[in-house]
Design brief:
This protein is α+β, with helices and mostly antiparallel strands. The protein folds into 3 domains: about 50 residues, no CATH class; about 110 residues, Beta Barrel (Thrombin, subunit H); about 100 residues, Trypsin-like serine proteases (Thrombin, subunit H), CATH 2.40.10.10. Helices cover about 20% and strands about 25% of the residues. The chain has 7 helices and 13 strands. The strands form 2 sheets. The chain has a 6-stranded antiparallel beta barrel. It has a 6-stranded antiparallel β-barrel with strand order 2-3-4-7-6-5. The termini are far apart. The N terminus is likely disordered. The structure holds 4-(aminomethyl)benzoic acid. 4-(aminomethyl)benzoic acid (4AZ) binds next to strand 12.
Length: about 300
């Protein structure tokens, strides 16, 4: 490597470290001076650690039956292999209403989707329901532009019980810096991987304030106020493809509350590329209006 290349690399590397440090998530465990200097091998080791070591995402754990009774799977209705049919997640808002991401269902007809509730294992049928109506919010154009929210009205009510429960929406639109979320899904456990059979959960996922998520090395201003970011600066732990539409929850004194919907991100588990979620509290009035009268709420 030439001297010039080396100093360029060093500058880029310093930026990465500076960005990671200013993100705070690694600040307690990183020695700033030591990370910026040191031999190339030293730097390589720190860099590998900062980058999360493995491109493996989620780093989640398998859920037990009834642990996330609001989680549903959206399945392609005409694929009989339940595992292969899974294409997105969703959350039970009420016995006949599912909250999901607009990007999961836009351009899809109700008869193309079946909702599976009451199981953590995709290969176990649980309770299945056809969809009567898909309500995509007015103004939705693409997940990266925001408004990534939709509702599914089921043909028949779900039988609420220990394994099937609705989750209330979080009331506050904002979150403390120290908020920790939980995300669940059957999505890929590695970037580009296949969905998994057993529902996975990831807890203690740090909230990432909008200002931080909008920094140049993260999303450089693309994060809108109706999005929430969550994850670690060093990456390695994240939601991924197949988790979309599913719940990001927060623990409150009253119990678990729906805080977000898995929406998008650049890759999965990449350093500084946090997971991006729909900020559900911004749409609480819209959801209530649709549930009261789906024909008159603002829909696409
Ligand atoms: C996706 O492609 C996707 N890391 C969902 C979530 C994330 C990235 C991609 C967040 O559906």
């Amino acid at each position: 490597m030439s001297r010039g290349q080396r100093s360029w690399r060093r500058a880029g590397w310093s930026l990465l470290v500076a960005a990671a440090l200013s993100c705070g998530a690694t600040a307690q465990s990183i020695d700033e001076k030591a990370a910026m200097n040191g031999s190339e091998d030293y730097q390589r080791a720190v860099e590998a650690w900062l980058r999360g070591l493995e491109p493996k995402v989620i780093g989640g754990k398998p859920a037990t039956a009834g642990q996330f009774p609001w989680q549903v799977s959206l399945d392609v209705s005409w694929i009989s292999d339940l595992y292969r049919a899974h294409f997105c997640g969703g959350s039970i808002y009420a016995d006949e209403w599912i909250v999901t991401a607009a990007h999961c269902v836009v351009g899809t007809r109700p008869q193309d989707i079946v909702v599976t509730a009451g199981t953590t294992d995709l290969t176990t049928a649980g309770v299945r329901r056809n969809v009567k109506e898909i309500v995509v919010i007015k103004g939705y154009v693409g997940a990266r532009k925001g408004k990534d929210i939709a509702l599914l009205r089921l043909f028949e009510k779900l039988p609420l019980g220990p394994q099937i429960q609705a989750i209330p929406l979080v009331e506050a639109e904002g979150f403390e810096d120290a908020t920790r979320f939980t995300v669940t899904g059957w999505g890929a456990t590695s970037q580009g991987g296949r969905p998994v059979r057993q529902l996975q959960f990831l807890e203690n996922l740090p909230h990432v304030p909008l200002l931080q998520c909008n920094r140049p090395l993260s999303y450089d201003g693309a994060i809108k106020p109706d999005m929430v970011c969550a994850g670690f600066a060093q990456g390695g732990v994240d939601s991924c493809q197949g988790d979309s539409g599913g719940p990001l929850t927060v623990h409150t004194e009253q119990g678990e509350r729906l805080a977000g919907i898995v929406s998008w991100g650049e890759g999965c588990g990449q350093p500084l590329k946090y997971g991006v979620y729909t900020r559900v509290a911004k749409y609480a009035d819209w959801i209530r209006a649709c549930v009261a009268s789906s024909l008159t709420c603002e829909r696409r």
